[in-house]
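#structure-requests
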Amino acid sequence: MNWYLKVLKQYADFNGRARRKEYWMFALFNFIFTIVAIILDYALGLTVGELPYGVIYFLYTLAVFIPSLAAVVRRLHDVGKSGWMIFWFKCNRLNRFTKLLRNRWSTLNSNSVN
């Protein structure tokens, strides 16, 4: 739990290094708290439509977004990589996602024309 709190205390500190244990303990507790937030949303009836998560999950995810990004950047620094590599990875994923949507959209349009 101390590793999780350490990452939260270094909220937007993108400098320095994050050791393997610090990063993975943060990831473990983040996963556990995310599951708890989803269960609370479901138990309290705060879900959004048919999705199994709701308000608590969205607030937790929003609150932990920047600390988790900072932890990833510090972990990249620890293995000798630039922190900007995370943005290359995200852009690559976004590019693949848009290609997938474009292919699906063109398939839907070609089926509706016939």
